[in-house]
Amino acid sequence: MAQDLANGSYRQQFIPVSRNKVKQSLLNNWEIEDQLKDKYQNFFKMIEVIWHHDMHYNLEKLKIAYESMNPDSFAEINYDIQDLELFLDNLDQIMIDGNWLSISKKEIDEALDGEDILPISLDVRFDEFSKMKLYRLGEYYRDVEVKSFFGLKKQTKNLRIFGNVLTVLEFKDENWFMENRKRKKHYPGVEGNGLHIRLFKEVPHLDMEVIFPNTSPSMRTLEKVKIGAPLVGGLVSLGMKYGPLLFGNSSGDTSLSLIGGLLTALGTYVLKTYTGYQKTREKFRTTVAKDMYFKGIANNESVLTYLIDMAEEQEVKEAICAYIFIQKSEVPLTEEKLDEVVEQWLYDKFGYDIDFEVDDALAKLEKMKLLSVADDGVLSVVSLDQALIILDNYWDNLYDFVD
Description:
Blueprint: H1 3-6, H2 19-28, H3 34-66, H4 81-97, E1 101-102, H5 105-113, E2 121-124, E3 129-148, E4 153-171, H6 174-178, H7 181-184, E5 195-204, E6 215-218, H8 221-246, H9 256-295, E7 296-299, H10 301-328, H11 335-350, H12 358-367, E8 371-373, E9 379-381, H13 384-396
Antiparallel strand pairs: 1-3, 2-6, 3-4, 4-5, 5-7, 8-9
C-alpha cells in the first residue's frame, strides 16, 4: 500500500500529481491514434477553460468579500462579524472543493508537545486570536536524519509532513491587549488588524507551531542545562574558594577586597549566564526565521488566487479521469466500480493511494450533460465528438445578454 497508509494515516482525496501529467498518462494508458489524441486534447482544453471561467467567478467573489478585511489593502480595514462569517463560509467551500482538510485540535496539541526537525519548542498564545481556522492539503512521510547531543548523536526520524498548510487568523482588538499589563507587550499594533491568511508548504506536523506569528521560545531541558551550568559551576567554585575565608573564625578574616573579588566573580558568572540565554533565544529566532523563509508561499489576497488555482486543478483532474475511464472501459461501470478502477490506476501509475472523489467527478460530468446513469446504475458518457459539440455550445452560450 501507499506510504501514508503504511503509517496508519487517512487516504487523502487530493491528487498530488500535476494536471499535465494526469492528462499525458491517461492518453498513454490506451493505444490511441494521433488524430484521436488531438480530439482528447481539445476535450481537455474545453473542460479546463470552462472550469477556469467558473472558478474565476468564485475568485472574484472571494476577493470582493475579503477586500474590507485585507491587511495589505490601501483602504481602511472596516468589516463586521457578518462580513467575516460570509467570507469564511465561502472560503470553506473552496477548501472543500480543493480537498483540503481542517487541522484538528489533537494535531495542534501533538505539535505543541513534540518536535521533528527543529530543536525548538514554541509556546503559541492562542488566546490572542478572536478567529482561527487551519487547513492542510496532502500528506506524506519522509525519513530525515536528525542530530542531537551537540551533533554527536544522529538518528533517523520518520516524519509526518503536511504538503500545504493554510492559516486564517484574526487578532483580538487593541482594547483586549491593553486591559492587561502582561498582554500589552504582545500587542501587534495596526499590522495585526484585519484577517491574516498565510500559505505554507512542507510543514512537519510536530514543528507546525513555527507557522504562527505570536510564539515564545520554550527551551528544552538540555538548553536550560547548557545555560545554567556555568552559573552553577561558578557558584560551586566560588563557594569552595571563598567560603572558608568568608566564614572564618574572626570577622577580621573578611576584608572589603575579598568581598569585592567575590562579587566581581559572581557578576561575571551571572553575566555569562544571561549572555548564553540571549544567544540561545537568538539562535531559536534565526532558525525559525530561516525555516519560515523557505516554507512561505503566499500571503493574504494572493493566497486566494493560489487556492482557486489548486481547486481548479483538482476539479479538472477528477472530471477527465471519470470521463475517459467510463468511455474506454470494456465492461460496464457503476459508480462504485469506477471508483475502484480510477483509484487502482492512480496507485499503479503514480504510487499514491487516493480516495478518489467519484461522486464529485460524476456531478461535474452530469452538469456538463456528458453523463447518463441507467436504472441499474451503469454509467455511460457521450462520444468524444458529441462531447466537443456540447462543451463548445456551453461555452458559446455562457453570456447571452441580448435577446
